[in-house]
């Protein structure tokens, strides 16, 4: 299946969940926020949230500064 990840096409296995994507990107240990179709998904729900063909996924990383 194909999704849009931060505006770019990305192909995933048909049964992928949000946690699979985060693991594949190797960013699970970072301070990030994830939205699917403009709805923020809490970290506790990543393993339960199934992705669908055409979903728009936005991953934003928090960057500290002052």
Automatic annotation (TrEMBL):
A Pfam family: ThiS
SUPFAM superfamilies: MoaD/ThiS
Protein name: Sulfur carrier protein ThiS
Gene label: thiS
Coiled coil residues, start to end: none
CDD domains reported for this sequence: Ubl_ThiS (cd00565)
Organism: Undibacterium nitidum
NCBIfam families according to UniProt: thiS
InterPro entries for this protein: Beta-grasp_dom_sf, Mopterin_synth/thiamin_S_b, Thi_S, ThiS/MoaD-like
